[in-house]
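Morning!

As promised:
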Amino acid sequence: MIYADNAATTMLSKTALNAMLPYLEKNFGNASSLYAFGQKSKEALEESRETMAKNLGCRADEIYFTSGGSESDNQAIITAARLGEKNNKKHIISTAFEHHAVLHTLENLKKQGFEITLLDVHSNGIVSASQVRDAIRDDTCLVTVMYANNEIGTIQPISEIGNVCREKGVIFHTDAVQAAGHLKINVKEQNIDMLSLSAHKFNGPKGAGVLYVKKGIRPENLIFGGAQEHGKRAGTENVPAIVGMASAFNENCNNIESNSAKTAELRDRLIEGLEKIPYSELNGDRHNRLPGNVSFCFEGIEGESLLLLLDDKGICASSGSACTSGSLDPSHVLLAIGRPHEVAHGSLRLTIDDKFSEKDIDTIIESVTDVIERLRNMSPFWRDLVNGKRPHVFEKRR
Ligand SMILES: Cc1ncc(COP(=O)(O)O)c(C=O)c1O
């Protein structure tokens, strides 16, 4: 099997697993218990907090452990919204291609009387700091822009947006779920006030995440109860998962440059191979993208059929289309970068890591090329394109 869906989730690293095992087996104490056995878990928790903080460039008491990216996004946005409300500021700026953890939270706030501006995304999958600057108003309480997009992998100018927000005195949150552990992040240098990350996207376990909140901003509780996480997130801490997250994050951050250079080289080989398929186009900027992300649209193809046939060949990939979630709408991300509906349906996302070999990449290229040819040969839609009954969207190029 070739697992090329690392944006969906990643394999737990051996280092993370080994770090977790003692807390799953013998050190199972509750971190809130006062006896020494419980305090072992507390120590592990606080060490993990230090590790996360060191690798994000912040203080340990600015790190809040959560269940993952969705919870962190919700808590960050609701924190800024409630603060804004108190100051009569009910305008929030975000982008049209955020993850649903952000978009759906914003939709909910809209029902509560907030005004939401979703910035357009350029066709290269990037939002500019000047767009953010132009959209900020006196009543803006939050700018939330993702660090890197989960479908097309494009990296946003986070430091520049951070500068604009700092200058204008507006809270800046970034959903860094796809970036953390893959790109260098320093929240202080980049003027980030709140940041979300999720362990399972960087070889940590599922069900653990972090919300970084700059000192001075009081996080709003989503979960009430015990006094865990400075009283801001109740519930017995998932110590094994948190320890695993910190261990995986530390390992990834220590190797970030070499891993990303190797992954980017493989990514470029994959892009070059897939570009040879006629009437295909890469989604998003060619260079300013996550080292492991390759996202394509192919004319005359249904993304779901492509995925199923690739699965038959032992390749795990993903499509931008939302059909699997019960909707026939194409991906909001692909529509946001201006892909027409019929092309957005024919998308493929392959997300790789540094463990791939050149042979794996070549197998993927060969398999995708073969499956696309087979699907096109069966497609009446493709026949219409070939017969000139419908116009092509992309260049033939080959
Ligand atoms: C950009 C982005 N934000 C948020 C999430 C949600 O993270 P989690 O699965 O940890 O809740 C994801 C997961 O795919 C993501 O890619």
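The longest helix spans residues 36-56.

Hope this helps with the figure draft.
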